[in-house]
Automatic annotation (TrEMBL):
Lineage: Bacteria, Pseudomonadati, Bacteroidota, Sphingobacteriia, Sphingobacteriales
One Pfam family matching this protein: DUF5958
InterPro entries, sorted: DUF5958 (IPR046002)
Protein name per Swiss-Prot or TrEMBL: DUF5958 family protein
Amino acid sequence: MNRIEFLINEVAQSKIDFESGFQAILYEPNFDFQAVFMLLENYIFNSIPDKVSYKTETYQNAINSIPLKSTFAPVVILKNYSTKKRIC
């Protein structure tokens, strides 16, 4: 587990608060936005309790607990589009 994965894990377990973890990740010397985004996408998709539907109460509650504005693009995407991976 690298430092960024460790920090994400610490935030997810509420061992450090979101803002502190967010800042620590942004200022990591090896920060790569695309790599972190893909890592978070993978974590989110694999943590969905019911992978059949993104409209379940559990999933919606999880999305609503994200400490970001509800108008922030990633939150809007998660609220409005299926999280099922599509094979093109």
